[in-house]
Records
---
Amino acid sequence: MDSLPAPIWFDRECQETLSAGIQLVAIEREAETEPIMGRIRMDEQGKVWLSERDYLAWTGLSVLPGETLKTADGQWYLLSAIPHRVDACTMRLQLAAQLPRRHYTNQEPFNTVTLPNAVGGFVNLDTFAFQTQNQPVRLATQAGFSLSTLGGLWHSNHVFLREGSQRLNSQVRWDIASNMTALKVGDILNNSFGLSPNVRFGGLSWGSDFSQRPEVATYPLPSFRGEATLPSSAELYIDGQLRQSNRLSSGPYALDTQTGINGAGDIQVIVKDSLGRETRISQPFYTSPKLLRAGLRDYHIDIGRLREGFATQNDTYTSGFLSARLRQGTEDSGTWGIRADWQHQRESLQGEWLMSHARWGLFQTGWGLSHDNDLGWGQHALAGYEWLSQRGNIQIQGSVSSPEFIELGRDPGAVARSLRAQTGWRLTPNSSISLGWSDEQRRDRDSIRLTTASWHQSLNSDRQLYLSLIHSPSFGLNSSVGMSQRLNSSWQSDVQLTQRDPDGFGLQLNVSWQPQASAWSGRIASEVRQHELVNQANLQFLGDHGNIRMGLGDRNGVTSAQTSISTAFAWVPGNVFWSKPIPQGFLVVDTGMPQVTVYANNQPSGKTDRHGQRLLTDIWPYQTLPIRLGWEDLPMSLQLGEMESLVRPPRGIAALRLARSDPQYSEAWQALLSTGEPLPTGSSLSVHGETATLPSGLDGLIYVPARWRSQMLSVMLPDNRQCTIDTLPPGHSTGVLTCQLAQ
């Protein structure tokens, strides 16, 4: 460790040293009551190195150190700017983190805040212009209007052409996070069931929406149950990769894995008790997001009129319907579901059952029964199988329907039978292959049969080879073989030899340009084929206020040009923002001061405007987002307010207020003991019996009310020694105070 003075709360009893290499340790910061798990790198000299993400998150510093270490595991940064200590006896890294409002030992744990919907709105605009040689310019604009008010999100999308305008869809949505449900009114695309198609309709939909609680596991995850006779430590591995480490007390325990696991694998638990005895237990598992975990229920109710001919001149609302569907997860019987649809003079009922096996994968069965006053009874059946692993996958699904079977969105008996099969395998760490086949026999139009095959080989990090084959009786064989080559950090090339029925062989050359940390990118492409020569050039700009795309093309001497401009305008009460396109919503961070750096996910997003606000558009509803401010941009009076927050934005628009100053603790001073050492962290200050709520901070910092000026301060050190500061100067300065130790 460096020569920085170690805070008094550091544990100094352990005399062991941690071995060199990557180590899994518990991270303890003074302001936290519970440690967090993380990985550090130790070198032969006992110095601590952190990854970029962990360095910024754990220390609270906004500037990375200059000393770096590049290894096969990534780039590491030397931990030297703040006091720290490695406790090898209990595998801990103790940090004196410089996090604002976390200087104090009595700070409460940092909790995630779900933000409510705020009043505001935004408009996305996308204007497209296209011209072919000797033809007039064609213009089109698509506009999306969104409004957040009354607890819901309202939006409407429109297309404007020279011939007139057309509404694409309009909807208002209310999310109810307490029970993970959502109510939608307007134009809706409902969820499919089994092999049923998605259906567009106008009306009302009420049902489950698990995205509002991303921390809730919606499908069964591998877990482990056991019992420890002594206090122990446990490490849980998934397919040989360490996923979590736990400290266990004696008695029964449960280890639950996190989301992100899919398919087949092995779970292994290594338990080491306080006597050093080690126990290893492993078991296979299979899980899939298609399943529902035990006790979870997914339901939807839709009512309205079917919409046909979407975005065409024949766009219209047709027959009315009512649809209800329910899926339920069970502990031993997998997941079952049922769906019922009602239309005028016709009804249908469908069911499905999914079951997984630890070694054999996922099995799916389904059935359907319908009745029409004119057609009579119809039947439908389906079956499917899935197996996924790190090395490969197999997916098979088939269905058969009688001519009388009806379902929403399709003509009666449209699909006679359907069979789909797909498999993909990793042959080596750098080589993979995939095969696919589908055959859909239809009664309402031509049947579809498709066979695909592809192969990919990575020669090194900059060069890849690939082969692709697609065959269909309707359009013949299309094939291509090519190689992509990264020329440098900005340029990449791609060469393909293609064969396409009935055009024969062709040669394609693509060169793309993407400089690092640049808003500009470009691409040049050329294709030579029998009786055809095509050249294209595209340039793209992605900026803070919008995107611009420009392209030129030439096909056999006929030139064309196209341009598109995308931008957005957002507003909240008292402020208007000009922004790049907003995908789903935005978050306004209000600091009350201009030119304050706002960090999102530990990355600088920019500075606040003259209103003291910063617009964040790259957010996802209900996903945890760490927000913090750059302490270097704020006076101490604001740094004593809330400087960071862990939030979950709603679907739509939200506002977050940070850096509210605390007028009672608006001054910071530097203080040293009469021995020359910094005033220890956690020292208690008082004047005439009135004790400051905030104890002293790190590196000799003290925080005192402005009314204490010209007063003598009594100080109680953490080791119960006492000292006094004779007089707090009447005017705030950068001078260093001296605390005289009592004799």
Note: The radius of gyration is 32 Å.
---
Amino acid sequence: MTKPSSPSELHFRTCNLCEAMCGLRIETSGGRVTSIRGDEEDPFSKGHICPKAVALQDLHEDPDRLRQPVRRTANGWQPISWEEALDETARRLHAIQKEHGKESVGAYVGNPTVHDHGALIFLPMLLRALRTKNKFSASSVDQLPHQLVAYLMFGHQFLIPIPDIDHTRYMLILGANPLASNGSLMSAPGVRGRLKAIQQRGGRVVVVDPRKTETARAADEHVFIRPGTDALWLFSLLHVLLEETGPKLGRLAEFSDGLATVREVARDFTPERAALHTGVPADTTRRIARELSASESAVCYGRLGVSTQAFGAMCQWLINLINLVTGNFDREGGALFTKPAFDVVQGPRALAMGRGSFGRWRSRVRGLPEFSGDLPVAALGEEILTEGPGRIRAMLTSAGNPVVSTPNGRQLDKALESLDFMVSIDPYINETTRHAHIILPPSTHLERSHYDLAFHVLAVRNTAKYSPPLFPKRPDSKHDWEIFLELKHRLEKLRGAPRVQGELEYRTLKALGPDRLLDVALRAGPYGLKLRPFRKGLSLASLEAQPHGVDLGPLQPSLPGRLATRDRRIQLAPELLVADVQRLRQTYPADAPAPEEGTLLLIGRRHLRDNNSWLHNVPRLVSGKPRCTLMVHPDDARRLGLREGGEAFITSRVGEVKAPVTVTDEVMQGVVSLPHGYGHGREGVRLRVAGEHAGVSINDLTDDRSLDAISGNAAFSGVQVRIKPVESIRTEEQLEQSATG
């Protein structure tokens, strides 16, 4: 007699693998996922999904994923109990700090953390319990310039202006490829359709980028620009807007300071001067400036490519200024602030994220400034390797793989190997966690509830959505927030914290969990009950009753009320940024220097099916033609003797890699491109699928000394490299052997 099949169950959920927040319709049967499709009833994504959505099932079922804690031994990885793992981790961290001081322990947090509200709420508690100033995160290889500029201009690091893509008639995009990223610091599912809608309503989309990206191919116009020169070009755009078309601050002038200073610093940055370095013709710059100024509505948007360069903070400052002086700030079709249901800016103090800070302390070796409690991760390797008081001797990493995602990865690889102790909160043994002494694997995406605490703050429309767990977590597993809480509690007990108070706090937080704290924030938020129990409003229960999510309306003007500066005024000319203009002038003098012969500029790239490094173990996402290739312009290929399908040695100050060549006019002459997130061929990595598509790490070439001098953000874009065909290297070696033989 055959056993009846399990009935199918239907679930609605948000995909939490990238920033787009696409709604999913997931069918399960017998405890397994049988189907993942877009949720057409989701008011934000309206059925759109990208190929990454299927990875939720693959990650949940991945045989390489750790199911219990492991300890590294001389004979390999040994499974251990949670109690043993947590006790040993806390004991060893405490012992190292007791012997060598608080700063002898460092912490690194990766970007998957922002896709998990439990982690976002509970991880800061653990970091405070560590009491170290040596904290690092993926922010300083990503969006740190956005946060610093928001802090300086608007008073809070998360007051990041969002492009009103759904209503604008002119969108200028720099260093961003939203058709691959699904929108970044601009959560926007279905970006292709949103860009097409701009064109259908008579508008224009213009992309300025060293590569003709997927987004550039869909735009009305693409303009090549030399990597790293975006600040110079943005200044020339601002020059035209101030000197020719005139500023249009409108009502914002009543609460804005510093316009005269901005005029003064922009005066000598003419389009003609910029053209010498950027490669953008002066008449093109003037035309784009006039189009921006004349458009009924317009918005300038710049993302990773303009943040990860030597003038990243300046680029984000200038983008805000361009939106302000064209009259497109805090207005429909321009750049606006969101009004999220969980308000991290103006919500309950205990749950709101800090407004930010800058330079309260500096790194030991190079003196790099902290921002909001984090030091630039480009300093991490040297802080471990450089002897002396305060040297990092132990590390805690969570949801991160800095060996392949931060600059000079080989140096960090060597540094992590030298640690006295390392613990990683991660489901995989990857390029970074292979150095850990203990790995604590959290539950999977489908075993925990989900609310996009961070990305509702960065979305192109105000929405809210809660997803309960799809599957119950195994009895012998823990959520990441539980791991953080358990480690916090143990560290405080070892340190001799008040026993009764500590036990009460621990039991209270454990009972509440992230969902009840989420409920408090929703009720206290702008759409919540606000202590009026008879008025309907958002709560966790009301969101659970609406599984497709809630549409809270388009972005709306919110100034000056939304400002968090102490005087509620916009600071157009922060002293820190104005002072940095001299560095820009010195770097790009009026008379352009001759480029170094034979030097090429390296940039990264991203594919729709990639999400940093950790999705490369999903077979469906790495299938097809190899993506880890070096893109080279045809003229450069001919000059260097490179051919399609051949191999090239790429060398920088910090290292060299070998990669197959793709010859294409998609990159401008003098520029080459490698994708981000590869390099899985290191010994000890237990990612079978990723190992079969190992590729090379661009961060074995990027330079830990190359930073934005203001923010400390890594300057990945425009790394100087030299390239030779592998065949020529072999010939040189053969000739050398023949001569010595």
Note: The chain has four domains: 9-61, 70-142+345-514, 161-336+563-582, 594-740.
